Task: inverse folding
């Protein structure tokens, strides 16, 4: 057991992975074989397949959710009940209010900008001779982890006085064009916008991929009919392309909204939530684990959960609708 | 069992090589061929035979600084037969509480903040085991009494001091000072006069450089400034009352200290050499903040002894070299309060091998062994440490100040305050003080309002 539990080297870790995969295959094969047996009662099969999943969801998702909700009504060290004190604090403390405002900025701007950029890009490169290369280029940021992207952009925004050698790309550009260098991440609210730009940079690729696939799925006869009617390029885009890909647009918008609500890495790695750039997910971490205000932390987590619910419901309904249409 | 023992031998070999290369072969005496054979076990007999026992250690110290710690356990392991399992994590502060709550606490933890010891004592009253007799008598014998106070909660000693650092240091370039005929200031007024002189002599440079950016801990270097000045302006007694909240955080004496810091940190004539204006202090990472000293863009940088790790390789750190540090002067030449920090070992298991290990970590044997296997940048306040075992002159200077019986030592205040202030509003308000020009009084009022 020591060998499996205390894996230090890469070889050991790989071995552990192989063992885990083998174990999975063995258990699943056994389950499948057993369920094929003719005399198996149906309820036993259901329990065998659903049971583990339900148990894991109860243990790994439902239990922590309930405990977090209860925790949001407790004090910083989770020892006493304090009623709705934490909720009042979140909505009245000016710094926490800035956090909520920033989160709102993120949730409105990131999905809109990413989708607009993704859509324009998808339409422009559609059927162009270098489509594949152009798409790969804008999809690449998706392959970078958010922490990686955060660190890259932290360097891009890096500040040095105008008369010193520059290390940040943006400030080098400013120097070349004869401007003073700027501290991009210092002043609110522009610093939040510069952070949002990073997320848009990442998410545009995702939007572009989904929307491009949707555009390609528009039936040729509709496009030809529109062309025969003499529709201009702009008209084509507004009256044919966008309505035809509406379900895909909704999925892209809501998915990016949810990703944005949960974003933590970019803010944490670029400003650490300083200079009024903090957002709910980041503040939740800081309150829970750094300053030991676990009640406030739990409250922020609950708040995030509540904000995200309508988005999830809307997303699921839209998916059902588009399935029915098919 | 087999794997750890083999690793122990490898580590012992590595340690022996380190000692040999560092001290030119004078460590240990007989220079015997087999690894670990040169350990004198006489001092370890008090711990008895601990063969087959294991002690787990959980710390915030990760690679590469963890190796000297692991190596420093070797004499203990060789002589008592116990095995020490080291685990370092960058998420230590958050994870330790989680592990205690989950009933999965380590045997021993290295806690860098006395405030955290107090928090554990209040939130998890039965989790910690008080320091054993052997360790306590070591602490009484070898440490400045302040250390025992900082490791105690309500009169019970839970934390035994381990490493230490001195924070009241100003880094400067002895060569640049010599070229310009500058003297090391002995009083606060001399320090300001020197700053003015530098500003007048070098219009293209600035006397000071500073940086407080440190990821999600941004602001802490600025809190050190304030603490150092409270200690100087108001004295150690007021400092203690301020830290324990017996006087409000926004007491007029604290404002007075803050105004002195204001004169330097938010003075465009004094900062921020080679890095920009006042607000650039907020975005300059604390590790890079002193580097402009090397190219003459700034002359002084207030930072702890551990800043020596941030100088590039090959820089001569010595009294007449490229960089060194002087003691941040008090208001008069006679007052010498010292702000510092350090770690404490806290035990969570009541077993003989755990108590023995904690006692070993307070002993002169450990202090000297650790100094031998460590590179520059490690100091302890154990008075039995032979300064010759410390590799760098700055460590020796820090050690000299830490163990000087006349030194009034005070622990970094933000590490003593409740987390919501010491790792929360104190940091964030100092950041706003620099970044947004927030009013000093407003900073103190807001921190006072946030005290839990």
Result:
């Amino acid at each position: 057991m020591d060998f499996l539990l205390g894996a230090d080297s890469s070889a050991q870790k790989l071995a552990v992975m192989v063992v885990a995969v083998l174990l999975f295959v063995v258990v699943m094969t056994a389950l499948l074989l057993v369920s094929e047996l003719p005399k198996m009662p149906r309820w036993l099969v259901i329990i065998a397949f659903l049971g583990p999943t339900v148990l894991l969801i109860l243990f790994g998702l439902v239990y922590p959710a309930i405990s977090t909700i209860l925790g949001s009504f407790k004090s910083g060290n989770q020892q006493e009940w304090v009623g709705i004190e934490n909720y009042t604090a979140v909505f009245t403390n000016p710094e926490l209010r800035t956090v909520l405002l920033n989160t709102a900025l993120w949730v409105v701007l990131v999905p809109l900008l990413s989708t607009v950029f993704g859509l324009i890009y998808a339409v422009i490169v559609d059927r162009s001779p270098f489509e594949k290369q152009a798409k790969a280029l804008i999809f690449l940021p998706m392959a970078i982890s958010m922490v990686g992207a955060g660190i890259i952009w932290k360097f891009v925004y890096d500040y040095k006085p105008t008369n010193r050698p520059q290390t940040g790309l943006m400030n080098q550009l400013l120097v070349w064009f004869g401007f003073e260098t700027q501290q991009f991440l210092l002043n609110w609210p522009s610093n939040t916008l510069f952070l949002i730009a990073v997320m848009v940079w990442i998410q545009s690729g995702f939007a572009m991929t989904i929307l491009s696939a949707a555009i390609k799925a528009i039936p040729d006869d509709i496009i030809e009919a529109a062309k025969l009617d003499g529709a201009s390029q702009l008209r084509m885009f507004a009256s044919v392309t966008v309505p035809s890909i509406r379900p895909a647009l909704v999925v892209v918008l809501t998915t990016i909204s949810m990703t944005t609500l949960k974003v933590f890495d970019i803010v944490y790695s670029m400003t650490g939530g300083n200079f009024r750039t903090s957002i709910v997910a980041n503040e939740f971490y800081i309150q829970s684990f750094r300053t030991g205000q676990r009640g406030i932390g739990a409250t922020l987590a609950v708040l995030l959960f509540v904000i995200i619910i309508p988005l999830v419901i809307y997303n699921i309904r839209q998916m059902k609708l588009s399935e029915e249409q098919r | 069992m087999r794997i750890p023992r083999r690793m122990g031998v490898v580590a012992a070999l590595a340690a022996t090589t380190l000692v040999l290369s560092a001290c030119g072969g004078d460590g240990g005496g007989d220079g015997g061929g087999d690894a670990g054979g040169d350990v004198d076990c006489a001092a370890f007999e008090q711990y008895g035979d601990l063969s087959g026992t294991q002690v787990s250690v959980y710390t915030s110290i990760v690679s590469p600084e963890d190796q000297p710690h692991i190596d420093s356990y070797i004499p203990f392991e060789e002589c008592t037969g116990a095995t020490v399992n080291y685990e370092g994590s960058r998420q230590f502060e958050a994870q330790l509480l989680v592990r205690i709550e989950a009933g999965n606490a380590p045997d021993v933890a290295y806690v860098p903040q006395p405030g955290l010891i107090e928090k554990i004592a209040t939130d998890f009253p039965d989790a910690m085991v008080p320091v054993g007799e052997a360790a306590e008598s070591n602490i009484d014998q070898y440490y400045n009494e302040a250390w025992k106070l900082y490791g105690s909660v309500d009169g019970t000693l839970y934390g035994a001091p381990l490493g230490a650092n001195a924070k009241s240091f100003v880094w400067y370039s002895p060569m640049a000072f010599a070229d310009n005929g500058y003297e090391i200031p002995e009083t606060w007024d001399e320090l300001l006069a020197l700053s003015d002189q530098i500003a007048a002599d070098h219009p293209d440079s600035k006397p000071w450089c500073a940086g407080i950016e440190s990821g999600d801990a941004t602001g802490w270097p600025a809190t050190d400034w304030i603490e150092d000045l409270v200690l100087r302006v108001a004295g150690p007694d007021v400092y203690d009352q301020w830290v324990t909240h017996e006087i409000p955080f926004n007491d007029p004496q604290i404002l007075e200290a803050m105004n002195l810091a204001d004169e330097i940190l938010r003075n465009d004539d004094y900062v921020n050499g080679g890095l920009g204006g006042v607000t650039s202090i907020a975005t300059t990472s604390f590790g890079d903040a002193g580097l402009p000293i090397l190219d003459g863009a700034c002359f002084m940088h207030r930072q702890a002894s551990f800043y020596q790790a941030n100088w590039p390789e090959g820089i001569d750190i010595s009294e007449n070299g490229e960089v060194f540090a002087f003691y941040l002067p008090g208001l008069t030449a006679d007052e010498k309060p010292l702000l510092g920090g350090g770690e404490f070992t806290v035990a969570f298991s009541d077993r003989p091998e755990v108590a023995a290990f904690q006692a070993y970590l307070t002993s002169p044997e450990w202090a000297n062994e650790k100094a031998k296997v460590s590179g520059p940048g490690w100091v302890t306040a154990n008075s039995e440490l032979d300064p010759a075992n410390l590799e760098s002159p700055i460590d020796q200077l820090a050690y000299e100040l830490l163990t000087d019986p006349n030194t009034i030592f005070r622990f970094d205040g933000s590490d003593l305050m409740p987390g919501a202030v010491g790792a929360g509003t104190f940091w964030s308000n100092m950041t706003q003080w620099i970044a947004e020009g927030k009013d000093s009084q407003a900073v103190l009022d807001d921190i006072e309002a946030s005290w839990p």
In short: Chain B is about 45% helix and 15% strand.
